[in-house]
Amino acid sequence: MALKKAYPLLENTDPWICTASKLALSIRSVNVIYRKHLKKHKVTMSQLSLLMVIGKMVSVPQSEVGKMLKLEKSTITRDLKRLIDKGHIVKNGPANRPIVEITDKGAAYTEKIIPDWHAATDEALAILGNDGEQALNLVLNKLTK
Predict the structure, then answer these.
(1) Average pLDDT of each block of 10 consecutive residues along the chain (145 residues)?
(2) Which end of the chain is more exposed for a tag (fewer CB within 10 A), N or C?
(3) How many CB atoms sit inside 10 A of residue 102's CB?
(4) What CA–CA distance (Å, rounded) separates 53 from 98?
(5) Domain locations in the chain?
C-alpha cells in the first residue's frame, strides 16, 4: 500500500544509527546465548542477577539491589516475588525499606547455575573476542559514570 502523503523525516531517517536500537539488538543477541545455557534451570538473567548480587551481599536493602542492577522497580518486584515464592530469597524489615536475603536453598540453587552461567559467558566472549570485550567494557564505563 502506498502512502498518500510524503513523510520526509521518516523517509530520510536511518533507524540503524539509533544507539538504543544497536544496544538492544546486542542485548537480545547475547541473551539468546544465556537463555540457551540457563534454560534447564528455569531462571531468567534478571532473576540470576538478583540471586548473584544478593548472594554476594547476603543481606541488602531491596532499593540498593535495584540501583546496582539499574532495574525498574516493577522488574525487581516481580522477579523478587518469584524468587521469594520459590524459597530462594526472603524479605524482612519494614515494608517501605525491605531487606532482601538469600536463603540456603537460594544459594544452593545459584551454585548449580553458575557453571552454566560461566559456559554462557565463555561462549559470548568467544564471539566478541578481546576487542569486543574491551569495547563492551568501554561502553559500559561511559554509560555508568
Answers:
(1) 89 91 94 97 95 93 92 90 98 93 98 98 97 95 90
(2) N
(3) 25
(4) 16
(5) 39-143
Comparing C-alpha atoms, which of 88, 102, 77 is closest to residue 42?
88
Nearest Cα neighbor of 57 from 112, 93, 99, 95 is 99
Q: Please report, to the nearest 10 degrees, the dihedral formed by the alpha carbons of residues 127, 128, 129, 133 taken in order.
A: -150
CATH T-level fold of 39-143: Arc Repressor Mutant, subunit A (1.10.10)
- pTM for the structure as a whole: 0.85
Within 10 angstroms of residue 76's Cβ, the number of other Cβ atoms is 20
Compute the distance between CA of residue 99 and CA of residue 15 in angstroms, rounded to an integer. 42
Pairwise CA distance, residues 91 & 80, whole Å: 9
Output the CA–CA distances (angstroms, integers) from residue 111 to 44, 84, 104, in the order listed: 15, 17, 10
Contacts (Cβ under 8 Å, ≥6 apart) of 61: 93, 97, 98, 99, 100
Is the backbone of residue 119 left (phi > 0), alpha (psi -120 to 50) or beta? alpha
For the chain, give the percent of residues with pLDDT over 90: 84
